Amino acid sequence: MPAPKENEISREQQIVFLKKISFFSDFDDHELRQFLSVSRWLKVPGNTQIIREQTNERIFYILVKGEVSVFKTSEENGAAVELTRLKTGDCFGEMSLVMDIKRTAGVRTTQPSYLLMVEPAIISTSNVFLQLKFYKRFCEIMASRLIAANARMAGQETREDEEAAEYKEEKTAEKSTAATAARPAGPAPSSSPQVVSTAPTIDPGKMPPMPADEDRRGKLQLQRLVSPNRHLPICPVIVRHLKLFWASDNSGNTRRLAELISMDPVISTRVLQAANSSFFRRSSPVISVPHAMITMGLDHIQTLIREILETPQDQPAFSGFRQVYRAFWHHALVVGRIAELLQQVIRVHSSLDLYMAGLLHDIGMLALDPLCPNFYAQTLRQDSEFSRRLIISEQRYIGIDHGTAGAWMGEKIGLPQPFLAIMQHHHDPQRAREHLLAVALIHLADLFASRRGICLGSPDPETLKPLDSFAWVMLQDQHRPFMEVNVVDFIEQFEEELDKNWNSISELPS
Fold first, then answer.
1. Which residues on adjacent β-strands are paired with residue 67?
2. How much of the chain, in percent, has pLDDT values that exceed 90?
3. pTM for this prediction
4. Which domains does the chain have, with CATH numbers?
5. Closest of 20, 172, 160 to residue 87, by C-alpha
6. Which helix (H) or strand (E) holds 449?
7. Which of 74, 114, 115, 185 has the highest CB neighbour number within 10 Å of its CB?
């Protein structure tokens, strides 16, 4: 049996950990091994948010070692008010096992901790005796918490304890408010740059009417309407460059042709679709434009692109507002470039073309745009919810978000699975179950780009805090060399690297 890698906890060590906590007090070694085989063991740094409020996530956590803070965001001032602290042996997120409801509180580690992440769907497929023992223990915990709640309601706890708890909550809120008020108005330090909005202003009188949320369709209907046969809009700048390319004497320059194709999400998607079709026999999925050019051959590629350019588009993108399309295209390019830089800095060896994954991650917006033509133009209203909370607005006014739409369309046209996982989960990486490393990297690239104002609408500072991202936990879990990295220091250093390379990263072809 090979020796465990440095910093890696062996299965026997994990069992020793579990035996010391009350949740597993009546589990034997065999049952603990079974349980570990259907759960995920996470080593989480301090000050990492595990659960975010108002998210849908059916995952239950057991705190094997460490401490977490359970908090709720104040509606009045947005401050995080601590409700309680949980220590080794406690569990949290348990309501997700019995009810499909949004998270009512957030959870953040206060120190480096070990967690077991348990998914109900996986537990339900495991050994029936293990299921019974697990749910018996779970019911005991729920019952004990109900008894404690009843005791508080009946006034059995002393008034002194209640006053102490109230005082603690008030002090926590005061400290958060004071910290916010004391924050300097000048530029933030490089580790936490200010969120910048670069959204163009526009005369409200020239805006299309607001969509009505009662007009949204059901998911099954939307899934049928997201069609791979639509002629999605192509960037006119790239169209012009391609026409100039063929008009010049450099039509045989395959490197330049690959660069031009790789700057447009729609053309890239069509090329990958063709290269992954049954027409071309291949031993592995085609995941990049150069790979597609080798698979298809230059003649086929040129014929395909000429057909794409000559095919009329179904309708103008984003109600004809060029500012919105430019913001969409700019965001796609920048996310791809930042993902590529992250891959180099972290030294991740991946067969997936992360630049291409970043370029295509938001293509679901182009799939949804024809279904609600006036929706994305509303991002130009910088004072509206469309600008600040795009995902929530998509779900409210259209019925699904662009991540789901992108994954549906990608599946219909036969894109490789990693692209589908990234499209669907780049805003909520903790829900991904496959290709976790790639999803985490694109999520972080998306976050860094949006913080610098490269996005549709006005970026929301509350949702763009790199340190809060669960993607760091996924990175440390999936990429062992990153396990010992101090995330706070890494964010600061990466922001400095972005500053140095920002001109080339944010550049748009003219």
1. 87
2. 29
3. 0.66
4. 11-153 (2.60.120.10), 204-227+315-506 (1.10.3210.10), 234-312 (no CATH)
5. 20
6. helix 436-451
7. 115
